[in-house]
Amino acid sequence: MKELFATICLAGAIQSLFLFLVLLIKKNNRIANIYLSFYMFFVAIDMIELYLTIKGFIFQRPYQLSLIPYSFIFGPSMFLYISFLTAKINTFTKKCLLLYAPFVIILLINIILYILISKSELPQAVIIMNIIINGGGLFFEGIFYILSLIILYKYINRLKEFFSDIDAIKLSFIRTMLIVLIFVILSIFLSFISGHNRQEYRILDVIAILIGLGLVFGIAFFAVLQPKSLNKIYLIDNALSHEDKISKPRYEKFRLPEIKEKEIVKQLIQYMSEKKPYIDENLTLQSLANQLTLSTHHLSMILNIHFNQNFYNFINSYRIDEVKQKLVNPNYNDYNILTIAFNSGFNSKSTFNSMFKKITGMSPKEYRANIFPKN
To answer: CATH for 2-231?
Structure first.
């Protein structure tokens, strides 16, 4: 088992170094990828340290006791990667570096503790500090993963203000990986506090480490292969003026005269009915605003205040109405439901099914069955 784990650690280290280099030179989302490459570099160091320990090149220390406090690197690095990827943070500042201050402090403490460690016995004070540092580090790392998840969910809500289809850019894969990673960190934390002075990893510890390693590799590979569509959020940030980014509670300060707003509402409803812009699967807030000769801010304000909807829900509700009209039209009886959906502006089966269920309370098949019940 030890030899197998050692081989996996060595292979993981090599793979991590490869991803570190690839992410470092990748041009898309460069700042975000620098933080993820930083993460992968320390994953490689961690794997190398585990390998050397298993092989006996480094003397066996108590469970989870390491000179480098990896958790204090992993948590902030993932948080900053997600923050820059989703444009939560657009510019590097000194505040970003402050997130690594705990790492520097703990590293200095660990160096002192490491000097005190002997192969034969471990001072009680060192054991206590080991519990505090490593247990606290795992908690610290988990908190940053949770904060990263919160940023991702806020990012999705923001996308819905600008796009009518977000499946390709809502980062579902990373969200799933982070959720599982949080549970892995929790399991390692529970294992640590239940046996902090152990000399070896249990089989469950090894499994948790390998799963965590696999998840991190998954996120890194996604970053390497990520589609250019992820850059849309940056294009929007660059295209919109300061006023266009005003949040909904502050809309009141920038309201148009009541008569003018009613005219825009009437114009919008008429345009949606006659021109059917929602048939365009790539329709965005910017493109619809251009068609109506409005600013994106005013169009967004109208949707939020007068329709109580974001752009995503507003456009997809029209697409669902279009599908419903075609489902009751005898001319479409021979058409597959998904074909009808795609002809109505949808380009994702999952989005169509979820929106249809949300608006009608039933699945598309159930809806069609109710229209044309079988004898």
So the answer is: 1.20.1070
